[in-house]
Amino acid sequence: MATQHHQNDELDHSNLSIRPLDPATDVDDLMVWVSDDQVTQFCRWDTYTSRDQAIEYINKFVLTHPYYRVICLNNRAIGAISVTCNTGNDKCRGELGYVLASEYWGRGVATWAVKAVMFTIFEERPELERVEALVDVENKGSQRVLEKGGFIKEGVLRKYCIQKGKTRDMVMFSFLKLV
Ligand SMILES: CC(C)(COP(=O)(O)OP(=O)(O)OC[C@H]1O[C@@H](n2cnc3c(N)ncnc32)[C@H](O)[C@@H]1OP(=O)(O)O)[C@@H](O)C(=O)NCCC(=O)NCCS
C-alpha cells in the first residue's frame, strides 16, 4: 500500500536541493508561499495578493540579492533561504532568513536547509565571521529550527521592530565561523 506523507513525517532529504531562483520557471511556486497569511504571519513583509506583485518582488529583491536561494523538492521550489550581507565595518556579519510553503512544515525541511547553507556559507563568503538570525519571540518553530541548525540564542531584543503594525520583541541567534 502506498504510504502518504503526514505532518511530522520527515521528507526524503535526498530529494531536497538549494539553487538560485529561476524567474522563468519558479514564479507560480513562489506565489504559493508569498500569498499565504500563515506563512507571512511572522515576516516583516505583507502577504502578496497578485502575481504581478510577486514578479516585482523577484525583479527588485530576489534577482539583485547576493544570496537568495530557493529550497526545492525534486527541483520544484517549496521555500526560500537567504543570507543578507552587510558592507563596510559590518561586513563580518550576515542575516539569515527562510520561509517554507505551509504544506511542507513539520518535516525537517527548514532544518535541512539551514544546515546546508551553514555548511558552505563561510567558504562561499569569506568576509563573514558571523551569521545571525532574528526571530519573533512567539515563532517557536523557527527558534527550534535555528537551535537544531547549531545557532546559539544570544538574548531578546525588546521592542525591536514593527511587524504587521505591532512592535515586536525579537530573539537574536548567531552562528560563528570556526577559526
Ligand atoms: C519556521 C519554518 C521555516 C519551520 O519550517 P519547518 O520545515 O516546519 O521546520 P522543521 O520541520 O525543520 O523543524 C521545526 C521544529 O520546530 C518545532 N515546532 C514547530 N512549530 C512549533 C511550535 N509552535 N512550538 C514549538 N515547536 C515548534 C517542530 O516540532 C520541530 O522541532 P523538532 O524536530 O524538535 O520536533 C516554517 O514554519 C515557516 O516557513 N514559517 C513561516 C515563515 C517564518 O516564520 N520564517 C522564519 C522567520 S524568522
UniProtKB/TrEMBL annotation:
GO MF term list: acyltransferase activity, transferring groups other than amino-acyl groups
Database matches in PROSITE patterns: GNAT
Domain of life: Eukaryota
Alphabetized Pfam families for the sequence: Acetyltransf_3
Stretch forming the signal peptide: none
Domain N-acetyltransferase: 16-169
Cited InterPro entries: Acyl_CoA_acyltransferase, GNAT_dom
Coiled coil: none
PANTHER family: ACYL-COA N-ACYLTRANSFERASES (NAT) SUPERFAMILY PROTEIN
Protein name as catalogued: N-acetyltransferase domain-containing protein
Name of encoding gene: LOC110792248
